[in-house]
Write a structure and sequence with these properties.
Layout (H helix, E strand, L loop, with lengths): L3 E6 L5 E13 L2 E13 L13 E10 L2 H8 L5 H4 L5 E2 L5 H18 L4 H17 L4 H7 L26 H4 L10 E4 L9 E4 L7 E2 L3 E4 L2 E7 L5 E5 L4
Parallel strand pairs: 2-5
Antiparallel strand pairs: 1-2, 2-3, 3-4, 6-7, 7-8, 9-10, 10-11
């Protein structure tokens, strides 16, 4: 299980690393979420670089909920909830996957619709979707909810065909025909190498003879980036804000 970790320096040439995880369980008719923090004091300058002080585990809090819906409302109340409550840091969450599956699908779909997350955030969001894929063979309900996961065009916002975790900020086929250079001249991109690799731009209507040497392109003033897709073809994504 991967856990949140933070590393802090100290004055004695040691580093303090913190791991945070949660435990979800039922007790006396309530759903409980227990937050735990493990602190490890490491000494990287010692001869044995793996040497560290004894780990200390601390109980931070326990929250109680009348229902799983109340639990879900609690962990998703902030805009970037998925950064604190990562799917693989909550022990035993798979026990409640049938109830949580429709809530997960609805919430991550909304995140992809709004597109207010970074590329690194996307991998964390995908952990929640992966819960549905992991347990879809064990439950018909979870299987049906996994089929409701969606991605949306980064330009027109319409739902795209199929579901793409890898390219949640890509544009649809219709919008790819609207791509231009900075001055509004129409351009297109294609694979420049055999077997669907490479990415080359050219100006539309020139039989691919007049090249466009950038991978940044525009639709109505919005910046996008063209690149070679993982399994061939071209994908055009909304440009990441730095």
């Amino acid at each position: 299980m991967s856990l949140f970790s933070r590393i802090f320096g100290s004055n004695d040439d040691s580093k303090r690393q913190e791991y945070v995880h949660y435990v979800l369980y039922e007790a006396k008719g309530k759903y409980c979420l227990k937050k735990m923090k493990k602190t490890i004091l490491m000494f990287p300058d010692r001869i044995n670089t793996n040497a560290h002080a004894e780990a200390k585990t601390q109980h931070v809090f326990t929250k109680k909920f009348r229902s799983l819906l109340e639990f879900w409302s609690y962990i998703t109340k902030s805009k970037k909830w998925y950064l604190e409550y990562q799917a693989d840091t909550i022990e035993h969450i798979e026990k409640y996957i049938e109830t949580l599956a429709p809530l997960i699908a609805k919430e991550t779909n909304e995140l992809r619709r709004n597109m207010e997350f970074s590329k690194s955030d996307n991998f964390i969001i995908a952990q929640w979707d992966n819960l549905l894929f992991r347990y879809k063979d064990k439950s018909e309900l979870v299987l049906q909810e996994s089929k409701k996961l969606k991605t949306f065009c980064a330009n027109c916002k319409n739902e795209r065909r199929g579901f793409s975790q890898r390219y949640p900020k890509s544009i649809c086929h219709e919008c790819s025909s609207k791509v231009t250079d900075k001055n509004g001249r129409s351009i297109e991109f294609f694979n420049s190498e055999a077997l669907g690799s490479g990415c080359q731009g050219c100006y539309s209507g020139t039989n691919q003879k007049e090249k466009y040497e950038l991978n940044v392109c525009y639709i109505d003033g919005k910046e996008f980036v063209a690149e070679e897709a993982r399994f061939g073809g071209i994908v055009i994504n909304l440009k990441e804000e730095l």
